[in-house]
Amino acid sequence: MASRESIVTSISPDLTPLVEFSRQFLSGGKRFRALFCYWGWRSVCAPDSPLSPVVGAASALEIFHAAALVHDDIIDNSDTRRGAPSAHRLFDGLHARSGWAGDDTEFGRASAILLGDLMLGWSDELLDDALLEATDAAGARQARIEFNRMRTEVTAGQYLDILEERAWVTQPDSELLDRAHRVIVYKSAKYSVLAPLVIGAALAGATAEQLGSLREFGLPLGIAFQLRDDVLGVFGDAAVTGKPSGDDLREGKRTVLIALARDHGSAETRTLIDELLGNPDLTESQIVRLQSAIQASGAVDRVETLIADNVAEARRVLASAPLHADAVAELGALTDTVTRRSF
């Protein structure tokens, strides 16, 4: 950010908010993607491997993630992120305070789109710098391939997510659970866990067998990670999640949790979900009604079982993976961290 600030502000001091707001979005978060990238690298690297390539790759993932969150909040009309105003709200607040012409909201959304685009570019520049420092040229090429695939898949997954919020009415009920699971795989599981692991390992020159083990470990763990996030999106404490409780209900997320509630709940539960889910003006009492109906359907217990099954599969793969023992231990600890986050 320090190196890019001089480029941006040399164009005009009016661009200072782009840097300030970028810093704000990069200063928080749990750094899960960076951690998985680092431990993927550590799981296969030689003891004397230079650290700078993986630091650059992990940082590129964090900046990419920040950009994705900026765009995601625009898509979902989310007012907050990590307990603070989302990027488009920061910009529309700037517009309002400055007394400029036009609509605050329109300015905020347009500016945040550009901020996200800017950070996407910075992420790619940072990855390029990291790959140039890698000692294994073939591994660097593989890391770039994995990063490119991740960008395509997560964008596709994001489209599938917004599609499901609208297209579910035309789909057979029997297909909704599978469609919700597909969103999990591409919007989150591969992007949040599998890809960072493989990018880090590829950078260190991992063998095909090692990359295969990390994929087999990362996919079920990523699914469990997102299933936990879906539960938090409905029942989570705002102080823990940084988002208002029930935010996914207002946004109309057609998650595995919701699909299971519709499949196993009463007719009244299904009607309640279909009538209220996706209403941005849900009252607190309506959110409580939805939460109670979802809980009564048994969907939460079923999701908890899915989380446990996926974690068990990830641990099974990790136990016999051809990876360094210290990294295996840390990846095991991370497995607990990303799937046992509290309400």
From TrEMBL:
Coiled coil: none annotated. InterPro entries: Isoprenoid_synthase_dom_sf, Polyprenyl_synt, Polyprenyl_synt_CS. PROSITE patterns: POLYPRENYL_SYNTHASE_1, POLYPRENYL_SYNTHASE_2. CDD domains: Trans_IPPS_HT. Keywords: Magnesium, Metal-binding, Transferase. Gene3D superfamilies: Farnesyl Diphosphate Synthase. Its cofactor is Mg(2+). It holds the Pfam family polyprenyl_synt. PANTHER family: GERANYLGERANYL PYROPHOSPHATE SYNTHASE, SHORT CHAIN ISOPRENYL DIPHOSPHATE SYNTHASE. Belongs to the FPP/GGPP synthase family. This is Polyprenyl synthetase family protein. It comes from Leifsonia kafniensis.
